[in-house]
Amino acid sequence: MKNKTSEPIETERPRVPSVKGKKRKRKLTDIETMQRKVIDEAKSPSKKKLIFPRLGYSRRMALKDIRPYEPGRPISEVQRRYGLDHVVKLASNENPLGPSPLAMEAVKRELNQLHRYPDAGGFELRRKLGDHHDVNMSNVILGNGSTEIVEILCEAFLDPGDEAITSEQAFFKYVISVRWMGGVPVLAPMKNWTFDLDAIYERITDKTKLIFIANPNNPTGTCVSDKEIARFIEKLPDHVITVLDEAYCEFLEENERPDTLRYVREERNVVVLRTFSKAYGIAGLRIGYGIAPEHLLEEMNIVREAFNTSHLAQAAAYDALDDKEFLKRTREHNRESKRMVLEKLDKLGIEYTPTSTNFVLIHLDRPAIDIFKSLLVRGVIVRPMRGYGLPNSLRITFGLIEENEFLFKHLEAVLAI
Ligand code: PMP
Questions:
Q1: What pLDDT digit, counting tens, does each position of 22-63 carry?
Q2: Distance (Å) from CA 413 to ligand 1 centroid
Q3: Is 146 in the pocket of ligand 1 (CB under 6 A)?
Q4: Tell me: the pLDDT tens digits for 124-166?
Q5: Which element (helix H / strand E) includes 375?
Q6: What spacing in Å lies between the alpha carbon of 277 and ligand 1's midpoint?
Q7: What whole-number distance in Å separates Cα of residue 214 and Cα of residue 247?
Q8: In 333-365, which positions are buried (b, 16+ CB within 10 angstroms) versus exposed (e)?
Q9: Which of 182, 258, 262, 265 has a CB 3.0–4.6 Å from the CB of 160, allowing a cystine?
Q10: What phi and psi, each to the nearest 5 degrees, are found at residue 163?
């Protein structure tokens, strides 16, 4: 398996069962071979490779296996490149209904404050989030999207060589951020496309500092239950910090939503991540937040850039939090759009992973990159999953009804070729 794009590089140590004290050799899987290579290189770095002789500086060892995160293609880029007027983007799990109307009003209202630096402490928004979640405002940290908080966590807690565990098909921003810091990402296999907390637990070592669990997960759309999380958190050693990334939690039914903030209230080493990018529809403003015990936030605030969230983003998020009507509409629409997309997939006989989110992971019987490209030239942007080691899979965000119809019109045509 080649690692051509910004892919998660599996670095979990292969487990070789021992017989009578001796290690029994077995053939390594592709993933394990790649993991070996990464670990070997990390142990004895080849200095030669890292120096750019002509430019006179050497590269950071930690960066040499990382390619930048590859986001969904912007609509304007696809229009420009393929000369298209109509392009539908179902690639970044955005809210197809647009931004929260209250957030838009807030942005308009606050435009005359653009000459000022934002409140570096995000006082008003943090206080409101504290009230909203029944925690203290001192338990809240704001981020330029919740992805920035993933970076902050790695900067605050990882020394080179420290390990961070997540799953093989977890949101791979985790792997990138761990590697930036010279940390070692350890990838546990998933079970039925879902985080396998036992497999993660088995991989904890003295060097483990962070565990990342996306719940629900991107790109699989699956989630672990309140009970499973409780059982996992209960047995964790004290030196491990667990990050529960709940970017899509608003799409879960009320009774499915794990109560994870209780761990913060109990001052466990747990950080809960949330975002305004998905259900609240303000991905473009870049604002998310973390909720954690104060002792963790003290460390994280050392590395947080003071003005990391803009005034407009803070104001929009503050008002969006009151937009119950929009949130309700978003959930209702997502249910309807999901039903439509899954029905069409069933009709076409396309396999997919059951999802609790606003997107679905589909599994084709051929390389998905070809389908992705054919859809792109027809003006449909979806997300190929090669980077997750899933060359036959695509991730599709549930869109407006007419956007879904446009997708299926072209998907059917492309699959028939
Ligand atoms: N976590 C997960 C699991 C995600 O899928 C995403 C968005 N792709 C994020 C976090 C980050 O969202 P944002 O930075 O926009 O808050």
A1: 445 666 655 555 555 555 554 555 555 555 566 777 778 888
A2: 32
A3: yes
A4: 999 999 999 999 999 999 999 999 999 999 999 999 999 999 9
A5: helix 368-377
A6: 7
A7: 8
A8: bbeebbebbbebbeeeebebbebbbbbbbbebe
A9: 182
A10: -105, 145
288 Cβ closer than 6 Å to some ligand 1 atom: yes
CA separation for the pair 61, 226 (Å, rounded): 39
Nearest residue (CA) to ligand 1, atom 2: 247
How far is it, in rounded angstroms, from Cα 352 to Cα 360?
Answer: 7
Token pair in block for residue 155? 């900067």
Please tell me the predicted confidence (pLDDT) of residue 21: 42
| Structure tokens, 255 | 């009774």
For 304-324, give the DSSP string.
S-TT-S-HHHHHHHHHHTT-H
* Per-residue pLDDT reduced to its tens digit, 54-97: 677 777 888 877 877 778 889 999 999 999 999 999 999 999 99
pTM, 2 dp: 0.87
CATH architecture of 101-320: 3-Layer(aba) Sandwich (3.40)
Atom of ligand 1 nearest to the CA of 147: 14
CA dihedral 76, 78, 82, 86 (to 10 degrees): -70
- Give the CATH number of domain 75-98+325-416; options: 3.40.50.620, 3.90.1150.10, 3.50.50.60, 3.10.150.10: 3.90.1150.10
In this structure, the residue with its CA closest to atom 1 of ligand 1 is 247
93 CA: nearest ligand 1 atom: 8
For residue 98, give the 3-state DSSP assignment. Answer: coil
Q: Quote the distance between the C-alpha of residue 34 and its chain's center.
A: 23
The pair phi, psi for residue 145, each rounded to 5°, is: 80, 160
Two structure tokens written together for 89: 């983007």
Q: Is 162 helix (H, G, I), strand (E, B) or coil?
A: coil
Contacting residues for 193 by C-beta, under 8 A, at least 6 apart? 169, 220, 222, 353, 361
Tokens of 403: 């956007």
pLDDT tens digit sequence for 238-290: 999 999 999 999 999 988 899 999 999 999 999 999 999 999 999 999 999 99
Backbone angles phi, psi at 343, to 5 degrees: -60, -45
- Residue spans per domain, the chain: 1-9+26-68, 75-98+325-416, 101-320
